[in-house]
Structure formats: C-alpha cells, structure tokens
Fold:
Amino acid sequence: MNKKFVNKMINLAYNSKMEHAKILVVGAGGIGCELLKTLVMVGIDNITVIDIDTIDKSNLNRQFLFRPEHVGRPKAEVAVSTLKELRPSLNVTGIQANITNYGNDFFQNFAIVLNALDNLEARRYVNRLCVSTKIPMIDAGTQGKLGQVTVHVPHITACYECEPKPTPKTYPVCTIRSTPSKPIHCIVWAKYLYEALFGLRDPDNILSDLQKKAEGFSDLGKELFNLLFKEELPEEAKKIEISIENIVGSQINEDKIGSLQEYAAGFIYAVENLKSREPKPFDKDDQLAIQFVGAASNLRAANFKIEQLNLFKTKEIAGNIIPAVATTNAMAAGLQVIEALKILRNKNEPKNVWISEHASDSKIIVSGNMPPPMPKCYTCSVGSVKVKLNFNTFTLGDLVSKILKNELSMQNPTLNLENGSILYESGEGLDEEDEERYAKNYKMTLNELKLADGVRVSCDNFSTDFTIKLIISHDENQELYEIVGEIVENEENHKENGENQNELKRKSDNSDERECKKLKIVEDIEN
Ligand SMILES: Nc1ncnc2c1ncn2[C@@H]1O[C@H](COP(=O)(O)OP(=O)(O)OP(=O)(O)O)[C@@H](O)[C@H]1O
Ligand SMILES: [Zn+2]
Structure:
C-alpha cells in the first residue's frame, strides 16, 4: 500500500459510505451490463446509468440484462428495470441520453465515474468533466480477447488524455479516388459513395460530384453502374466488360466471393431499394447499406485488379468490427469494480490492469502503477498551446472547427483576447447583434481580424469548465496548421525554434502528399 497515495486520496472529498456512494456508469452495452450486475452484486446500491442507444437484436448474445422482448427499447431504462428485479431496494436511475449533454452540475453528484463506452469522443468528454469536477474515473475497454482498465484520479494520476491516443489511420484522398491498391481503399470509397448518394450527403464528401451527376440519372442503378465501373475510370483501371442491360437486381451472398455478374446484380438491387428510402447514415448493421458497399467495393476492386472480399469480411472492415468476447467484457468489468472499491474504501492503491491474450509469467491479467499526470497534458495541466498557421488564409472558423473542436475536443468554445474582447462565442442566449458579429468573424482570416503574430487567445469551453490558452504565430508556409503542442507554463523556458518540442507534436499534412488532402478514417480500436 502506498501511504502517500492514500493520504492524497483522503484529501479529496469522497462521499460517504462505500455502499451508498453514488456511482455513474456511462454506457450500458457489453461492458456496461457486466459492470452494472457486478456493482449490484458487491453491494453498491446507488447507481445512475446513462446510455444513448436502444437495444438491438445483435446485443442480446452478450448484453444479458436485455431479452428479445426488449429489442427497440432504451438500454438504460431496461438495464435499470432488470437490476431492480434482481434487488428491488436499489436506488438506480437510467437515462437515455448522450453523455455530452451533461455538465459539471451533473457530474459533481457522483463519487466515481465508470466508463463502459465504445468511442474516443465520449471518453474524452467524460475525462474532461471528471478533471474539472475532480472526480475519479475508471475507464474500461476490450477488443476481442484483449482488455484494459485504467484508473484516473484528477491531478494525482494521469488523466485519460495525458497519453496521446493513436490517431486514426489516414488515407490520401487521391488513393481513394484514383489509385486504390488494397481492398480497404475500395471499401472506404464505397462508404463515401454510399454517404454521398444515400446517406449524409455532406457537401464536403470527397465524392460529392457524383451525387450531383446522379441527380440527373433517370435509371439510377444502370447509369451509375456504367459511369462508375465502365466509363469514368483512371488510365490504370480496367473497364468491366459486362452488359448491365439484362441484369436483374438480387442480393449478394454473405459468405462466398461472387462473380462480377452477381456483384452487378447486387449493386442494382441495393441502388433500387436505397433510392426510394429516406437518407440514412452508413451503419454496419443496415443490410441494404452493406449490400451496396459490398457490391460497389468488389466491382471497384475488379476495376483495379485488387483482391475481392466476401460480404461478411467487407462488413467487418466497413464497420471495423472486432467481434466482442463476452468473457473479456466480464473480466474487464470485474476488474473495474475491484479498482472502484479500492478508491471508495480508500484503503488500497488502485492499479491499471491489462488483460492479454497470451500468458506472460503464467498470467493473463497484469497490473501496473498509475502513471503521474503529464505536465504537458492539454486537459489536466494548466498552460498554453502553441499553434503555427498562415494568418492570410486561416479563418477564425478554421481555428474553431479544426483546432478547438477537432484537435482539442471542445464543444462550444468562447474565444477571448487578452484585452478582454470576445472574438467568438456560440450557443444559446446570444443577442442578435453579437450573433451577427461572431458569424462575421467566423468567416474572416486572422489577418482580416487584425490579430498580431504571437497573439494569445484564451479558449473556454463553457460546458466543461475547460480553458486553453493558444499562442498563435504566423507561418507563411503552413498549408493547414501545426500544433507545436508545447504547454508553456513559464514563458522564459520556451524555446522559439521548435526543437525539443516533439512530445506532442502533431504536424498537419503538408509534407508527403502536398497535392492531396488526407482522409481520416476512424478505425476506432477501442470497444
Ligand atoms: N456519447 C454517448 N453517450 C451515452 N452512451 C454512449 C455514448 N457513446 C456510446 N455510448 C454507449 O456505450 C455503449 C458501448 O457498448 P458496446 O461497445 O457494447 O456497444 P454496442 O453498440 O452495444 O455493441 P456493438 O457496437 O458491439 O454492436 C453502447 O451501448 C453505446 O450506446
Ligand atoms: Zn492529463
């Protein structure tokens, strides 16, 4: 037992007796169901669980708080009613909502927060709220037979964001559009095509030009087929030599690799059905969307002499699924509860724990000490972040969307200059005049806003009580931006030339493939 740690913990105001401590569980999926059950089994009786989703048939094999008759109902609500059947005296509340709609007022009610989430964005959000309300958070994630449980005690141990997470894989737009060489390139292309035609129809979609063309087609399936796989192809691609005239649409097989005829029929079938339905974002469990992506990606693979994949495999890649293993979820949730009890009882030092597939020293569960907070962390340290960008081309809107929202995960930032004037604010309750002024600022470049090289902008995220100071310098050669990532607590120590600043250095993509922007394909590995 580490005395120092325990003493520090005592200084934090943890609530009342362990059994009655209020616990927040975020997510009631594979890990969440196990977690809720185990919490109740060890005697915890005051739980709030929040989950955004409803129960899908495919959840039933491992999310055992749910039964076939619950399909379509909110996970949080059903989880609570099943737990109450187990022990009617429980004080459990289920909320169907996105956790990102809840702020400090909500979080500060809890003694501890347990994450059972499946995405980075929500995890980061919860982390920020826990840091700002100083509430310990325990995160759990599994991937097949691998799992990990990490404990984050604000300002005492590393927060969830102290270690930069692997950035999503990126593919150059030009590879996807004209020079695919792997099945994944074709699948990514087909997913964009789906979104452009039948999904989000985002004007920034790399295939949005095809959306416009398709609007003029009278026989969408056949004309699209001819355009995509026979006519408008780059030099190096082979044209598909089958006539579409007599092909009748039909579904493609899940397990077998089909012939080109079969894929053509699958393509026609999917297009005919999708065109008459309301636009809907891509979802791996959407049978029609998968038929479309499976057929289109294999036809494109044929164009470029790339290996074909069966629908099952395509679905796995398109939905980026690693099959969930119920036992790993149960182990991770169990370990999460053990670590939570250590914190609530305030006796033993919690640990980070990993579940591995192969035993080392005959152990498949290995634990390690929690690392200390990183002085350069965006989230849990106080300081400034240096950014380089071109003042002549970069707009305030770029700063808000690309840097503050995308890179630093702020939801609704307010930007203040050191002289106290507000550059930008968003959200409800603004008067008309301000709203107009901010909308105007949003479109202006930093130069047009008359910001000086080296300007300091304080960025506050209203809902999370999270502030970052940006020090922005002008760099004529930047095509996008570069976050130097230096958190400067003491100005004098800061080295202007950028050497030794590699730790959090994330370069914008202007080095290798200047002519083509890269796509971020989120292959979120955490479950
Ligand atoms: N922002 C969020 N707010 C609330 N709940 C969330 C949020 N993001 C994810 N979740 C929930 O976290 C849970 C994660 O569980 P899990 O990984 O088992 O996902 P699933 O969707 O149930 O299963 P699968 O993705 O394997 O089909 C899901 O129930 C999901 O609805
Ligand atoms: Zn941190």
Summary: Residues 384-503 form a domain with the Structural Genomics Hypothetical 15.5 Kd Protein In mrcA-pckA Intergenic Region; Chain A fold (CATH 3.10.290.20).
